[in-house]
Fold Pyrroline-5-carboxylate reductase.
Amino acid sequence: MSSAHGQKIAFLGTGKIGEALLSGLLRAGKDPADVLITARRPERAAELAARYGVTAVSNTEAAKVADTLILAVKPQDMGTLLDELAPHIAADRLVVSAAAGIPTAWFEARLAAGTPVVRVMPNTPVLVDEGMSVISGGSHAQEEHLEWAEEIFRSVGKVLRLPESQQDAATALSGSGPAYFYFLVEAMTDAGILLGLPRQVAHDLIVQSAVGASVMLRDSGEHPVKLREAVTSPAGTTIAAIRELENHGVRAALLGALEAARDRSRELAGGGK
Ligand SMILES: NC(=O)C1=CN([C@@H]2O[C@H](COP(=O)(O)OP(=O)(O)OC[C@H]3O[C@@H](n4cnc5c(N)ncnc54)[C@H](OP(=O)(O)O)[C@@H]3O)[C@@H](O)[C@H]2O)C=CC1
Ligand SMILES: O=C(O)[C@@H]1CCC=N1
């Protein structure tokens, strides 16, 4: 990747998503010498520094030195982090938040006037360069800032720019989305056990079916209904299963589940509880 908008990138908070993004950026060719990391526990930061060859620093040091700061702590920890960082971030730095729910305006109110802020919602498949990241700019983010943020996240998957008003919905769909698929795979593997298959066999059958279905969805250009109809033979097995899914309101459950995720994202707007 280029070093267009400043060289040094700092990850503040290197848990599940912070580490996934960090590893992806390095895979994409970012020089580890230009990457700084922080964590709450010094032993966590030291472990990651050793594993990836990046530099563990304090939050204050990162705020002073980095050109781009990627904030990846829990929404509930963002207030404490911003209190620590804000006095040290010059207004020409780019602040990128990966936190669910928290609007760019919340950051702008705590940072030096005019500091560009970009809100992004990635997902864990960034770990395998198949991430889906949704990006929105705050009121001081210029085109160059959005393009730089897009370049960072494009190195680990797809990127879509959306109005910030759609970020809570995107969080419910793609931010949390991988968890719904894992949940389905887990449940279907259990169904395989019920039908008498060994667990590993059930797991392998379902995982490869999920991979095949995902690639067809992505690459065929066909509507999911058409793809499902192609599997659903008259008086066959699939329609017997679909009837059960409809009887149990699975479609309605998904509508309700994603609405609940969207609402929870909204609740996290102020840092949340
Ligand atoms: N997990 C996911 O799929 C996604 C998560 N997100 C967002 O990413 C953020 C992080 O989530 P996730 O990675 O799951 O959470 P984790 O709990 O795995 O990671 C949080 C990280 O923040 C660190 N941390 C907390 N407080 C501070 C602080 N004051 N200074 C420095 N580091 C600190 C923790 O350090 P320590 O380990 O030492 O406690 C930990 O490394 C959240 O805002 C979430 O909404 C966005 C998209 C997807
Ligand atoms: O569950 C969460 O709150 C985070 C945000 C999106 C995915 N994980």
Observations:
- The longest helix spans residues 199-219.
- The two ends are 37 Å apart (CA to CA).
- DSSP finds twelve helices and eight strands in the chain.
- Residues 12-18, 38-41, 44, 59, 72-75, 77, 80-81, 98-100, 121-124, 175 surround NDP (ligand 1) (CB under 6 Å).
